[in-house]
TrEMBL record:
Domain of life according to the entry: Eukaryota
Annotated FMN hydroxy acid dehydrogenase domain residues: 1-365
Name of the coding gene: 101888820
Record family assignment: Belongs to the FMN-dependent alpha-hydroxy acid dehydrogenase family.
Amino-acid positions noted as binding FMN in the UniProt annotation, renumbered to this chain: 79-81, 108, 130, 158, 236, 258, 291-295, 314-315
One of the protein's GO biological processes: fatty acid alpha-oxidation
Enzyme Commission no: 1.1.3.15
CDD domains according to UniProt: alpha_hydroxyacid_oxid_FMN (cd02809)
Gene Ontology CC, one term: peroxisomal matrix
Name of the molecule in the record: (S)-2-hydroxy-acid oxidase
UniProt keyword list: Flavoprotein, FMN, Oxidoreductase
Species for this entry: Musca domestica
Active site per database record: H260
Keyword Oxidoreductase: yes
Pfam short name (any one): FMN_dh
Length: 369
C-alpha cells in the first residue's frame, strides 16, 4: 500500500488501479443512469455544519452502545457481496479489521467466505448477518441456526431487493463470479452455491437473484423472521416514514435507512435525504441507522446530527480491502475515524450526545439570508 493515504478517496483511487475491471464495475456501479448513486454523495455536500466554539474538546469520546453492542465508534461495515473478488482476504479480512477498530461487520448472504469461516477468522468482532430469504424457506431456516451458533449478534434483512436493479455495467460485462470462487454459505452440491454465471447480454447476479430469492415476501414474512430467532432483526432498505412505522409494528429492533448503494432503483432519494422523515416517524422506539454515501468524518457527523445512531460504509471497505487486504481496511477505518474525531473537536462535541439536530442544516437555509 503506497502512502500517504489521507482520505477514503485515496483508497478508492488506488483500488481502482488494482481490482479486476469486471469486479470493479460490479462494486462501483449503480442502477440505471446512476443519478441516485451520485446523489448519495451530493446530498451530503448540500448540508451545512453549524459548529459551536469554546467548548472543552481536549478528550473526545466516540464510544457508543448500539443494540446492546459496545463499540469504539458509531461506524460499521455494510454488507457487500463476493468480497474475494477484491482481495483473497475476503469477508474475513474485512471482519477482522472491523473488530480491531471496534466496529460492527455485517456479513452478506452472498459471501465468498462462509458464516463459520468468518467467525473463525474474526471471533472477537461484533458480527451481524445480512439475510436474503430464499424460495426454499428451509434453507433460510438452516442459515438462521448457523448464524446463531456462530455467535452473530443481529440479523439484517434486506427488504429492497425482491429482484435486483438494472445495473448496466454488469450487463455490458456479462458479469459472473470468477470460476475459482463460490458462494460459500451453501453446500457445494447445491444450485445456490454454484456461483453467479451469466449468458451473453445478461448479468449473472440478476439471473441468480431471480431464480433463488423469494419475491413474494411481505411484512408478514418479517413477522415470521422475528419469531423465528432470538436475535434482534434489523430491516435494511427503508426510505419512507410509512415503511419505518411498519418495521416498528412488526417487531423489528432496528432500521437501516438505505437505497442499497443506489444499486436498486434509480431516482430514489439519497439515504441522508430520507433519514429525517424516518427518524421523525419512529423517534427512539427503534434504532435508526444509515448507509450510503459516507466518505468523510463530517458525513458521519451529519448523519448522527439528523438522527442516525450509527452509519455503515460499503464501498470504502472494499477499496481498503483492495489496497492491502485486512490491513488496508484497517487503515481506511483509521483514516475515517481520525477525520470524524477532528470533526467532533471542531464542532465543539466532546461526546456523541453533544451532536445535536440544530448543528446541521440544508444549504437552502443560508440562501434565505
Amino acid at each position: 500500500m503506497a502512502p500517504p493515504f489521507v482520505s477514503v478517496t485515496d483508497f478508492e483511487e488506488e483500488a481502482h488501479k488494482i481490482i479486476d475491471k469486471k469486479a470493479l464495475d460490479y462494486y462501483r456501479s449503480g442502477a440505471g443512469e446512476q443519478f441516485s448513486l451520485n446523489l448519495n454523495r451530493e446530498a451530503f455536500r448540500r448540508l451545512r455544519i453549524r459548529p459551536r466554539c469554546l467548548r472543552d474538546v481536549s478528550n473526545v469520546d466516540t464510544n457508543c452502545t448500539v443494540l446492546g453492542n459496545q463499540l469504539k465508534w458509531p461506524v460499521g461495515i455494510a454488507p457487500t457481496a463476493m468480497q474475494k473478488m477484491a482481495h483473497s482476504d475476503g469477508e474475513g479480512g474485512n471482519a477482522k479489521a472491523a473488530g480491531e477498530m471496534g466496529s460492527v461487520f455485517i456479513l452478506s448472504t452472498l459471501s465468498t467466505m462462509s458464516i463459520e469461516e468468518v467467525a473463525q477468522v474474526a471471533p472477537d468482532t461484533c458480527k451481524w448477518f445480512q439475510l436474503y430469504i430464499y424460495k426454499d424457506r428451509s434453507l433460510t431456516e438452516q442459515i438462521l441456526r448457523r448464524v446463531e451458533k456462530a455467535n452473530f449478534k443481529a440479523l439484517v434483512l434486506t427488504i429492497d431487493a425482491p429482484i435486483f436493479g438494472q445495473r448496466w455495467a454488469d450487463v455490458r460485462n456479462n458479469f459472473s463470479l470468477p470460476s475459482h470462487l463460490r458462494l460459500a454459505n451453501f453446500d457445494t452440491r447445491s444450485s445456490q452455491s454454484d456461483g453467479v454465471h451469466s449468458e451473453e447480454g445478461t448479468s449473472g447476479i440478476n439471473e441468480y437473484v431471480a431464480s433463488q430469492f423469494d419475491a413474494t415476501l411481505t411484512w408478514k414474512d418479517v413477522e415470521w423472521l422475528v419469531k423465528s430467532t432470538y436475535l434482534p432483526v434489523i430491516v435494511k432498505g427503508v426510505l419512507t416514514a410509512e415503511d419505518a412505522v411498519l418495521a416498528r409494528e412488526f417487531g423489528c429492533a432496528g432500521i437501516i435507512v438505505s437505497n442499497h448503494g443506489a444499486r436498486q432503483l434509480d431516482y430514489v432519494p439519497a439515504s441522508i435525504e430520507a433519514l429525517p422523515e424516518v427518524v421523525k416517524a419512529v423517534g427512539d422506539d427503534i434504532v435508526v441507522m444509515l448507509d450510503g454515501g459516507i466518505r468523510h468524518g463530517n458525513d458521519v457527523f451529519k448523519a448522527l446530527a439528523l438522527g442516525a445512531k450509527m452509519v455503515f460504509v460499503g464501498r470504502p471497505a472494499i477499496w481498503g480491502l483492495g489496497c492491502g487486504g485486512s490491513a488496508g481496511v484497517r487503515e481506511m477505518l483509521k483514516v475515517l475515524k481520525k477525520d470524524f474525531e477532528i470533526t467532533m473537536s471542531l464542532t465543539g462535541c466532546q461526546k456523541l450526545k453533544d451532536i445535536q439536530r440544530n448543528m446541521v442544516v440544508h444549504e437552502s437555509e443560508y440562501a434565505k439570508l
